[in-house]
Amino acid sequence: MGKSSLINSLFQGEHAKSNKKQGKTQRLEFFLLKKNQKENKLFIIDAPGFGYVDGPILLKKKFKYLIYSYLNYAIRLKVIVYLVNGEYGINENDKKEIAFLNNFNKEIQLVFTKVDKMNSKEIIKFITEASLFSQDLVNVRQEILLTSSRNFFGIENLRSHLYLDIEDPTKE
Fold this sequence. Notes:
By secondary structure, the chain is of the alpha/beta class. Helices cover about 35% and strands about 15% of the residues. Residues about 170 have low confidence and may be disordered.
């Protein structure tokens, strides 16, 4: 249960195709999340993962190019939500990608997934490591969110954070 499961938890339904085998997202997929017709709209974009791609190395490079190209031109993008697999914590690949994403001048929200599979010592260890790593990256938010799609832990908190990122349309 990863990225697609988290999106489905946010939407409270089956919107993103979830696979038992990770690394199946092959394109940018856009989802509209809103509270009601009168409120601002929030789009969530599911992008191919950085960590694991089910395919050749060339495919992984194409995905990175797709994402980086999108980030260069996405002027209305408010925040990049970077998912960290809570079972393993932040790894060297995550650190490299987060440091690179920091260059796009977009806020980055770290979200640990699958926290239901962690004990409290692991949570403290992994959050501390991620906090120490990101403290000098100007675009990475210091608050790290914890979620679990399996038991919906932290889903409402993440949803609230995402809604807070929407600007008032009268300010544009």
